[in-house]
Specification:
By secondary structure, the chain is mostly helical. It has helices at 18-27, 29-49, 85-96, 99-104.
Length: 105
């Protein structure tokens, strides 16, 4: 009676034998590892080969007279002409498109 009696389990029709599935997967472990590692390596190669593409679009509107009212305070008392909305906007666009601004970004 030193022999242990384990019930022999036979998978019925429509049931899965977990041990059989795991042994089948274990025998294909190198293929599974290759199929997992290969796409990762291809993605890394793609990242180093391709040139990144960045694109941004910006739209700006000219300010209204109430937006630039603070700039015109005291200009008429000193004999200076008042700023116009289009004049302020053109200065803003010129500074925005300057080489110095492009170097910062």
């Amino acid at each position: 009676m030193t022999e242990k009696n384990f019930p022999s389990y036979k998978a019925k029709s429509g049931e899965f034998d977990l041990i059989e599935i795991m042994s089948g997967l274990w025998s294909l472990r190198w293929l599974i590892a290759l199929l997992a590692v290969l796409p990762v390596l291809l993605a890394i190669v793609y990242l180093f080969i391709t040139k990144p593409v960045y694109e941004a679009r910006v739209s700006t509107l000219p300010p209204s007279l109430s937006d630039i009212a603070g700039f015109n305070l005291g200009r008429s008392e000193n004999g200076l002409p008042a700023f116009s909305a289009n004049g302020v906007y053109s200065i803003f666009v010129r500074n925005l498109q300057s080489e110095e601004t492009r170097r910062q970004f």
